[in-house]
Structures are given as C-alpha cells and as structure tokens.
Amino acid sequence: MRITIKLQVLKPYKKRELGIVSPVTLAEVVNSVMEVLNRTVVVRADFIHGQQRPGVFGVDEPWPPGCEPREG
Fold first, then answer.
1. What is the C-alpha separation between 32 and 38, in angstroms, rounded?
2. HSE-up of 63 (CA within 13 Å, CB side)?
3. How far apart, in Å, do the first and last CA atoms of the chain sit?
4. Contact by Cβ (8 Å): 32, 26
5. Strands 53-54 and 47-48
6. In whole angstroms, how large is the CA radius of gyration of the chain?
7. Which position among 3, 32, 39, 43 has the lowest Cβ density within 10 Å, counted as fewest Cβ atoms?
8. 48 half-sphere exposure, CB direction, 13 A CA radius
9. Per-residue model confidence as pLDDT tens digits over 28-70
10. Measured between alpha carbons, how far is 41 from 11 in angstroms, rounded to an integer?
C-alpha cells in the first residue's frame, strides 16, 4: 500500500519518466515491485514481549501466505 501511495504522489514529471501514465500502469508497476520483494524479503515472527522471545510461525502466529513449510 505504501508503495502505491508513494508512486501516486510523485511529481508529474517523475511519473512520466517512470512511464506511470494511468492507474493500470501504476498497478502493474506496484505488482512488479512486490513480485521482486516477495522473493527477497525475509519474514520473521513478531517478538513475544510477555515471554521475552521471538515468536514461532505455526505456534505463536500463522504462517504468512506463501511461506508455509513444504510437506514431505
């Protein structure tokens, strides 16, 4: 969401330089950026403050979509 907003509020000349000329193009750019980030961002569970330890996916909170462990 922040990427979409940041691109929407760019100065018009910067949007033209990036080729963002319509809402459809904006969506395509955001989807491309997110596709790259989804392959490179490390996701970790939140810190459990009451127990002073990192959380565990599948125990303290659900697995993020697409990050579930493979069965077998």
1. 10
2. 7
3. 35
4. no
5. antiparallel
6. 18
7. 39
8. 11
9. 888 888 888 777 766 677 788 777 888 888 888 888 887 788 8
10. 28
Backbone angles phi, psi at 10, to 5 degrees: -60, 155
Residue type, 55: G
Nearest CA to 28 out of 48, 7, 12, 49 is that of 7
Residue whose tokens read 């810190």:
47
Confirm if 70 and 64 have CB atoms less than 8 A apart: no
Tokens found for residue 52:
């002073």
pTM of this prediction exceeds 0.85 = no
3-state secondary structure the chain: CHHHHHHHCCCHHHHHHHCCCCHHHHHHHHHHHHHHHHHHCCCCCCEECCCCEECCECCCECCCCCCCCCCC
